[in-house]
Amino acid sequence: MNVIPAPVPHCPVCDGAEQTFAMTARGHDLYRCNGCATLYVHGLPSNADLAAMYDDSYDGATTGYFAKVDKKMRRARGRIRALRKLAPAGGRFLDVGCNGGFVVEAARETGLDAWGLEVDGVSVAYAREHYPANEYFLGLVEDFHSVQGFDLIYTSEVIEHVADVRAFMAAIVRLLNPGGALYVTTPDISHWRRPRDLDKWDGFNPPVHCVYFNPASMRLLLESLGLEIVRKLPAFKPGMKFIARKPR
Asked: How far apart are alpha carbons 140 and 119 in whole angstroms?
């Protein structure tokens, strides 16, 4: 696998060069940033590697979320009901990492102009077939330039898969309208319910999960790119949920 050259392991969140070797896990070296305490894989996969890794990752849209669509749609509708007040009536919604389009469809059902973005072509094909009233883009958010001005962007359990988290989040900020809201979730490596043995935690999966945030490092990333934190939502499972806004 090709990797991004990284002779010195700079932190992908704060770009700090003061790191401590943490461990070797599943054949990959992981470092912890001395500044923001982010844990990350050294020798991050390239975007091309990531695209190949997630190509048809659900066996022709038959496994994972696709094996329990009714349950996934119920959860998507519940999530959107909780977030709907963050966008104006008829506002534009984008799900970055939309999988089979479940949350996109739930957003459309509430009256939002709903869009989805996904790197897995099989998942996008499923979304277009089953939820054709929405718009979908196949590719990276960094390459999405055809539409601007989203009022609410949703990205759940995606950023931990991303090699260049600053470029990923900067692209999202670019797409947000002034006053627009972002909802982001990711595993929380510092969560009190995370297993002491990382190998027993389902959130630990290098190199598929290549960046492991704590709430302080996620806050640092969001604020360093100009977003204002609205709220950190409680999470009983070892994860974190943030709502942030782009200033007007």
From this structure: 6
| Bridge partner list, 150 | 176
- pLDDT digit string (tens) for 54-81? 665 655 555 667 778 899 999 999 999 9
In total, how many domains does the chain have? 1
pLDDT in tens, 146-183: 787 999 999 999 999 998 999 999 999 999 999 999 99
Full residue range of the structural domain in which residue 111 is found: 46-245
Residue 157 domain flag: yes
Q: Where are the alpha helices (DSSP H) in the chain?
A: 47-53, 69-83, 102-109, 121-130, 165-175, 215-224
- How far apart (Å, rounded) are the C-alpha atoms in residues 183 and 83? 8
CATH number at residue 202: 3.40.50.150
CA distance to 1, 36, 169, 220, per residue, from 79 (Å): 37, 30, 21, 25
Question: Are the C-beta atoms of residues 153 and 143 closer than 8 Å to each other?
Answer: no
